[in-house]
Design goal:
By secondary structure, this protein is an all-alpha fold. The protein is built from 24 helices and no strands. The chain is about 70% helix and about 0% strand. It starts with about 25 loop residues before the first helix and ends in a 13-residue tail after the last helix. The model is unreliable at about 1-10 (pLDDT under 50).
Length: about 500
């Protein structure tokens, strides 16, 4: 997944379950039930819905799907097997989440994240901050091929800087994600950028080149909006940045040498080192740098005055595994650091959400509902625009129902490939539409693996950043505009296998 940082299941190994006993209305029953239950749950719990109640609602939605499957001759064992396969497919993402929590913990106590905030506060001001977030994250994401890595490194620091500058957390997260998904989507290192043309029958670099037609205008509009928002920022309630800078300097030994760790991690990712290996190395280096640059912080975390081998181990291990707090008289600073020092335990709520979402998606797949919904959308595609619109709708539906970004590319890719060929459309049209609507919108669904990950890492709910993730929701609209006015629609000129 472009954002999961893990190798996707091979497209040829993906299976799409069909069930002739099931009709479209029965397939939609679990979706309607889930949306209704989630809407009521969010109404009752508000921002606290992701603390656990939404997870149980997803299991209730899975139960509704299982009942529909039972009445359509799908055995309980079949459903459980598909759930097991779904959860298995997210095992890499779950381990990455744990490693991101560990990395954030050691990067906090080593002074890496505080150093990013320290220098960022001196360079960035509220007027240019949001646009700068987009550009910085786009560059990092193009280099690494991953929006997940971008969020876990510079994204966390930018959230802290934005909060200190008095910028809305939702705006900052939206800018971070807009840049991260632009870079990720356009990077040849991204696995969804490789997966989309593989499913459509196209070629990687032809796919990337064709994507620029819709992606570049979308990111330009996004940047313009964030530049305008920058000029409208009211920073009256912002923290005194000079005081914050001084207090960071008093709390940590700030040095440019600390940036060696994030630079090395990004270098490893660019060199196609396994993201899990890169994150583990980044975590361990963070622990080493903590002992070198911030021994007093490690001692504080361990609850001792003088470091010994045992207390040094305990301090670093606590930062990796559990919530840690840095003692400081500056309440704003304490709040900024608390968001970073979650450790592995701080990611358990997000992992819980992913497992429950995969349970719902697995049963929906097992009973044949995903296939039925995609086929119903395909049947509406009588015109060229209808075909593009049906593809977009199918990707969005799969992101909501399957909760998995890969399936949002694989299922519509397989279903729609022949239809595009029959209309004489080059495979780049399908692969671009898959990315414009499947890849980037996954982060807008709270229970999708991407939405759960990004909100967990950045500490900002999907509802808070949704409207500001401009690039993400504008991309499918742009692709539909291009289709409606037949702008740069590439026709089939040679036979693709």
């Amino acid at each position: 997944m472009e954002s999961q940082d893990i190798k996707p299941r091979q497209p040829q190994d993906e299976h799409i379950v069909e069930n002739k006993e099931l009709n479209i209305w029965e397939a939609l029953i679990p979706v309607i039930a889930l949306v209704a239950m989630l809407a009521f749950n969010v109404f009752v719990y508000g921002d606290d819905a992701l603390s656990g109640s939404n997870q149980f609602v997803l299991l209730l939605g899975a139960a509704v799907a299982a009942i529909v499957g039972y009445f359509n001759k799908v055995s309980f064992n079949q459903m459980i097997e598909e759930v097991a396969e779904n959860i298995k497919s997210t095992s890499g993402a779950i381990i990455i989440l744990l490693m991101v929590g560990a990395l954030a913990g050691t990067w906090l106590i080593s002074g890496i994240i505080p150093a990013m905030i320290y220098y960022g506060l001196q360079i960035l001001n509220p007027t240019i901050f949001l646009a700068a977030c987009v550009v910085i994250c786009a560059i990092i994401s193009i280099a690494t091929g991953s929006s997940w890595t971008t969020s876990a490194t510079v994204g966390i620091a930018l959230i802290g800087i934005g909060e200190a500058l008095g910028v809305s957390l939702g705006m900052t997260a939206g800018a971070v994600l807009s840049g991260a998904y632009f870079g990720d989507k356009m990077s040849p290192l991204s696995d969804t950028t490789n997966l989309a043309p593989a499913m459509a029958g196209g070629e990687l670099f032809s796919h990337i080149k064709y994507m620029t037609l819709t992606t570049v205008p979308t990111i330009i509009v996004t940047l313009i909006v964030f530049i305008i928002l920058g000029f409208t920022q009211n920073t009256e309630g912002a923290a005194d940045t000079s005081t914050l800078i001084n207090d960071i300097d008093k709390t940590f030994n700030i040095s440019g040498w600390l940036f060696l760790v994030p630079i090395f991690v990004i270098f490893l990712i660019v060199k196609k080192t396994s993201p899990l290996v890169a994150l583990l190395i980044g975590t361990l280096l963070g622990g080493v740098f903590a002992l070198i640059f911030q021994p007093h912080i490690v001692a504080q975390i361990a609850g001792v005055e003088t470091l010994t081998l045992e207390s040094a181990y305990k301090g670093v291990m606590n930062a990796i595994t559990v919530n840690t707090s840095i003692e400081t008289d500056n309440e704003t600073l304490k709040s900024l650091f608390a968001a970073s020092g979650k450790g592995m335990s701080g990611m358990l709520g997000t992992i819980w959400l992913i497992i429950c979402a995969m349970t719902f998606g697995g049963i929906m797949d097992a009973i044949g509902a995903l296939s039925k919904i995609s086929k119903a959308l395909l049947s509406l595609a009588s015109s060229t625009f209808g075909l593009f619109a049906s593809t977009v709708a199918s990707c969005l539906a799969l992101n909501v129902t399957a909760s998995d970004q890969y399936l949002a590319l694989v299922v519509p890719g397989k279903m729609f490939k022949q239809a595009y060929e029959d209309k004489g459309l080059a495979p780049e049209n399908l692969s671009r539409t898959l990315e414009d609507s499947g890849t980037v919108t996954s982060v807008l669904i709270p229970w999708n693996t991407c939405g759960a990950y990004q909100s967990g890492v950045l500490g900002v709910g999907v509802g808070e950043y949704f409207i500001y993730a401009i690039f993400n929701w504008l991309s499918p609209i742009t692709t539909l505009i291009f289709a409606a006015f037949r702008i740069k629609i590439k026709m089939l000129t040679k036979k693709y296998s």
